[in-house]
Amino acid sequence: TYRMGSGQRNAFIYKLGGEEVMFFIPDDHPNKFFISVDSQGYLQSLVIPDVADDGTINSPIFTPSRGRHDIALLNLHHTLEGVSHTHIVVVTKTDMDLYITKWTNHIIMVLPESAERQGFGVYRYWIKKFAEQNYRFEQSRKQERPMWPFVAIMEDNCATWTMTKCAADNQAIRSEKGVSLYKVLCHMEKTPEVTKYAALYVSHWRMNMKHPHCFDRGYTNSLQLVNVDLTKGIDFNRDRYMNDGLEFYKLVNYSGLTTCRFNIFQVQLRYLKAGGESFILPEKVLPLSVYNPSDDSIGVHKLITMPDKAETFTLPVPSHYLLECFLYQGSAEVLFKTVDPALPILQIDCYFSLGCSVSTISTMSQNIPKLEPEQKFGGLLLYFSARLNPQQLKNLNFVKGAKLCVIARDREQLREEILRLDLEENWRFRFRDEFKTSSKDKPIYFLTGTHV
User: Fold this and answer.
1) Tell me: the pLDDT tens digits for 367-426?
2) How far apart are CA 325 and CA 298, in angstroms?
3) 74, 76, 79, 82 alpha-carbon torsion, rounded to 10°
């Protein structure tokens, strides 16, 4: 084992896939949760129960947390009614010492060093990668007995839980009572044939909230039970800063898997002033959503620049964050300004929020034939669409003047995509239509065009 951090606690090394390494810093009872192999302290697996086990809580709970060691809601003892459970706080190496010192009775999972340079989605990405590898190992260790496939991923600001009554006809009745997280998880885990579901969710609490049904296929990010067996090969996007969970949910549904949201359970979130997704960003840049042209805030046009411009304005902000902010703030103002608002923008193999005034339809490449043949589109957004082929695009109905935005990691890849998809046949491009993010680190490039 290794001694890590100012808290001086033993750490297990865990090798994930190829060269990536993460650490687990257990509490005072490591043998209760982990199996280690040799004197060097390499972690072999996190113990998970069989499907047949009638444990109180089967799903290990992973809580990503960033920059909130002193305010995050990480003590689940009371809301889990004191029952035995596995709770793992997931942090980066930068935050490790602070969390080890503050949360001495918690298991800490330290992400690989590469996570320091990626979006907030990297937490859920590595949680799922670990859970998948751990599930496979536990299955082989227990001689192919059916293992419990779910892991719970919960935000660090979940404050209270409520339950709404459900009538026999699946109609929700507006009558709330406070419940514990223990009751919520037990109810979800005891769903009939639960292992056939790819993901389970709960609802957010809102004033005067109305749900027509007690259960639906909706999504929320605060608490999700992910079936790592059924969703094998579907990953969270580790570059994303916003909506990584929503994009994962869409990919799961596009793959034909079944999800369920329990509208009978609601979670109330506490606003935490520091940390979370905003922790890595300069204070002056945030929040871009309250940008006001009358002051000196950073406006949407400064988020991007032309690649060959001699003097460029740069921001000490990750390139992918700038891209997401620009797509949210600038889609209506810049990218799809001339598009008829009644015509949706088609997103293929991705999902980005394009702002409140832009309607979108997102789909996977293989599901393009399922789109309505008569559906007309006012634009197209492509994001690293390696699975897409030219013939699939030719079968889509874009109106004359529709706008195109192709996003790539560099200029070379951008031009390769234009050629591979034969976009110049139906789209017109100009030299001044190429842009890049205004980031100091490696920028992301994108090209815009018009349908002819």
Assistant:
1) 888 888 889 999 999 988 777 888 888 889 999 999 999 999 888 898 898 999 999 889
2) 11
3) -160
Cα angle at 362 between 225 and 278, to 5 degrees?
Answer: 60
What is the longest distance spanned by two Cα atoms in the chain?
Answer: 68
The encoded tokens of residue 368 equal: 């393009």
| Distance separating alpha carbons of residues 160 and 144, to the nearest angstrom | 38
pLDDT digit string (tens) for 422-443?
998 899 988 788 899 988 878 9
Contact 33, 24 (CB under 8 A): no
Please report which helix (H) or strand (E) contains residue 327, including its range.
Answer: helix 319-330
- DSSP assignments along 201-243, one per residue: EEEEP-TT---SSSEES---SSEEEEETTTTTT----TT-SSS
DSSP state of 423: G
Tell me the C-alpha distance between 331 and 337, whole Å. Answer: 7
Q: Which residues of 332-344 are buried (b: 16+ CB within 10 A; e: fewer)?
A: bebbbeebeeebb
pLDDT digits over 142-151, tens only? 877 788 999 9
The model's pLDDT over 173-190, given as tens digits with 9 standing for 90+, comes to 556 688 999 999 999 999
pLDDT at 122 exceeding the cut of 50: yes
Predicted TM-score of the model (pTM): 0.86
As a residue count, the chain comes to 452
Q: Within 10 A of 259 (CB to CB), how many other CB atoms are there?
A: 21
